[in-house]
Amino acid sequence: MDVSLRPVREDDLPFLNHLTNDLEGSGAHQWYGWHDPHHHRRRWEENGFLNDEGGYLIITRDDDRLGFLSWHKLTTSRVSFCYEMGLIVAPEFRGRGYGTHAQQLLVRYLFDHSTVNRIQAATELSNLAEQRALEKAGFTKEGVLRGIGFRAGRWQDGVLYSILRADLN
């Protein structure tokens, strides 16, 4: 599978907006309502979506933009941290394994270029496709997070997954 990751470019901003600020682009599990349409532009101008606290990368195959991955640093103690990651795959590319492969690439990238020991991802309990993708990518299900996220007018339960550096050996 010829999936790769690359930094966000300025011409990706409309694509990011479609995947995050449009119900058809984001999908039922990622739709949180409309937001500031200039948010992505400001963030791109500030740091190109990459800094020491996290970032965004575009998922590509040849010339196609398939979606994007994001991650951010979570402090876990006074001397340690983990990354939490997420992704949105464009509707026309969902269900083909691209998200699973992209998650594997990001995990490898973060373990290769940081001292992080744990990467975690959460999804809604009803998002069975993402749960399967995380498991195929090597993540371990840790448990249910009751009432963790508000979407579609009600509180949603989530599922937490993680992968440790040692899991790749």
Automatic annotation (TrEMBL):
Q: Which residues form the N-acetyltransferase domain?
A: 3-166
**Which Gene Ontology cellular-component terms appear in the entry?**
cytoplasm
**One Pfam family of this chain:** Acetyltransf_3
Write out the entry's keywords from A to Z.
Answer: Transferase
Q: Which InterPro entries match?
A: Acyl_CoA_acyltransferase, GNAT_dom, Ribosomal_N-acetyltransferase
Cite a single GO MF annotation.
Answer: protein-N-terminal-alanine acetyltransferase activity
Name the PANTHER family for this protein.
Answer: N-ACETYLTRANSFERASE DOMAIN-CONTAINING PROTEIN, RIBOSOMAL-PROTEIN-SERINE ACETYLTRANSFERASE
Name used for this protein in its record: RimJ/RimL family protein N-acetyltransferase
What lineage, starting at the top, does this entry show? Bacteria, Bacillati, Actinomycetota, Actinomycetes, Streptosporangiales
